[in-house]
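Q: Given only this backbone (196 positions), what sequence would you predict?
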């Protein structure tokens, strides 16, 4: 599969597809309910919804990040479940970070420039994303544990493009599988080992 056929069209299609954004919000709600049903990780207490404001750039107009808070007096700890909408504390929606970072590997510089302008992404931001994928992500404990599931091994120099190709994300359901795969790094416990 060539970079061109994988890169441009499916990335742009996913970024423009409002149904993808609606699906991601529903999956996040399901992940939150699953975490709520397990109770507090620290004391076993009941968890209540305690969402907080998030207004990601470059994509949908999601207003909040789903989160939970322990109801047990003396504990009251926050539990933020994994997310397919947000990639840790990044300002841009997770889908945008993954798709735009992947597109960079298959696009000519002029197209990257137009994409940056359309989404309002600064060149330095794209460079930070690239460094995060090529250095921080591939050296993280998350990736060291997960990379064994990919045969043949993925090309680390083209992350996340090689990850997208491996998941065959031109299909919406496969894109969702990729975002679910990345969901553990969106929680604070894993994020400490994979600093954003």
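A: Predicted residues:
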């Amino acid at each position: 599969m060539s970079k061109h056929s994988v890169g441009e069209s499916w990335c742009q299609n996913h970024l423009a597809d409002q149904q993808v954004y609606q699906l991601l919000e529903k999956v996040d709600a399901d992940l939150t309910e699953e975490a709520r049903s397990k109770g507090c990780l620290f004391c076993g207490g009941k968890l209540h919804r305690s969402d907080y404001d998030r207004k990601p750039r470059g994509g949908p107009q999601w207003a909040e990040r789903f989160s939970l808070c322990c109801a047990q007096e003396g504990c009251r700890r926050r539990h933020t479940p994994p997310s397919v909408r947000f990639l840790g504390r990044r300002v841009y929606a997770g889908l945008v970070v993954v798709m735009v970072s992947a597109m960079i590997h298959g696009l000519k510089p002029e197209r990257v420039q137009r994409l940056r302008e359309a989404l309002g992404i600064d060149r330095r931001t794209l460079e930070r994303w690239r460094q995060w994928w090529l250095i921080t992500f591939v050296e993280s404990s998350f990736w060291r544990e997960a990379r064994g599931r990919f045969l043949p091994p993925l090309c680390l120099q083209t992350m996340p493009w090689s990850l997208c190709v491996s998941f065959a994300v031109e299909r919406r359901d496969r894109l969702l599988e990729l975002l679910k795969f990345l969901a553990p790094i969106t929680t604070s416990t894993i994020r400490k080992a994979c600093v954003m």
